[in-house]
Write a structure and sequence with these properties.
A hairpin with a 6-residue loop joins β2 and β3. It is globular and about 50 Å long. The N and C termini lie far apart (about 50 Å). It contains 7 helices and 4 strands; from the N terminus they run ααβααββαβαα. The chain is mainly alpha-helical. A two-stranded parallel sheet has the order 1-4. It has a two-stranded antiparallel sheet with strand order 2-3. The longest helix is centred in the C-terminal third of the chain and has 21 residues. α1 runs antiparallel to α6 and α3 packs across α6.
Length: about 210
């Protein structure tokens, strides 16, 4: 049986998301997450093939995440709370401005191309749903998965700041004199500008 973990976009996503899911709490995962630097005018590779996600621990957050993705692509549920699936942002200014979904700005992996695995062995998803915080955490894991994959295809490596928006204590590259950005508005601006630049649009700090 072919090992379905090995796809052409697996290199960066698996070890990072494994730690995120295993942590089981958004209050803890920020300490393990690696962010990236701002770069401009990247040539982002298309989202071809499958995106493999290695699941280390099957707890409340990870199973809710997997079940939500599987149900959403079967049309049985909607990915409510996911910015990459629902949010729109402005690109351009003045008479040229328009509001687009993230996937219309940058090439994001589709939910149909996400594959979950556990070291090459078949999985059974069994749900005993006793919590509600997982409903909030699972959409964030989906967004982080897709945005990390996007960053990898854009050639971004190292400490990445534009995902600070998702974490309580965002990391920064102190070796190069960077300071952590803790202002929520500034974090959101960094997120939008990173998407604008990867999509070939001009970055700005105007309030929508």
């Amino acid at each position: 049986m072919a090992n379905y973990l090995f796809y052409n976009k697996i290199a960066l996503i698996l070890p990072l998301l494994s730690i995120l899911i295993q942590s089981e709490s958004l209050n803890n995962i920020y300490a393990y997450f690696i962010c990236y630097k701002f770069m401009k005018n990247e040539n982002v590779k298309p989202a071809d093939g499958k995106l493999g996600i290695l699941v280390v621990g099957c707890g409340a957050v990870s199973t809710t995440f997997m079940t939500g993705v599987l149900m959403a692509r079967k049309g049985l549920a909607k990915p409510v709370g996911s910015m990459t699936q629902y949010d729109k942002m402005r690109v351009g200014r003045g008479k040229d401005k328009k509001y687009l979904h993230y996937a219309d700005i940058v090439p994001l992996t589709k939910l149909q191309d996400i594959v979950f695995g556990r070291m090459g062995y078949p999985m059974q998803i069994k749900i005993n749903f006793l919590c509600r915080d997982s409903i909030l955490a699972a959409p964030l894991l989906l967004d982080l998965t897709l945005l990390m994959d996007l960053a990898a295809r854009a050639g971004r490596y190292g400490t990445q700041r534009f995902l600070s928006f998702f974490f309580k204590s965002p990391m920064h590259d102190y070796v190069h004199g960077e300071e952590a950005v803790n202002d929520l508005f500034e974090q959101y601006v960094m997120l939008k500008n990173a998407l604008r630049e990867m999509g070939g649009y001009e970055a700005d700090e105007e309030i929508d």
